[in-house]
Amino acid sequence: MDAKELKEVLALHQLWLDSDGAKGKRANLSGADLRGSNLSGADLREACLYGADLREADLTKANLWEANLYVAKLNGADLRGAYLSAATLGAADLRGAKVALELCEVYSLHDAQVSEEHLPWIILHPRHFKWFETLEVSA
Length: 139
Description:
Pectate Lyase C-like, 4% strand
């Protein structure tokens, strides 16, 4: 997806959010190639990013509240400061992603692939303990 198209999707999504769904359009970026995109500070609340390729994307301080990131490729993505409360990251590939403690707020990490450095946050958070055995961990 080119930058112009992404900008249009984000603008329509913001209008959708601001109007409680009366105007604009909810962002559907399912399967989108967003490798290396600058989404820093983007308001992606409730957006569908199912299977999106977000490798090396800048998602610092992005609002991903209730976003669907199921099976998303987030290898090397920068998620520091991103708001991930109630986000779904089931089966997502987070290996090499830069994350902060906000990762503990996600709705699902079932079958996710994570890097070893993510484990202290996941193990210590009771919500994720039940999914711990399903995670694929790489050094």
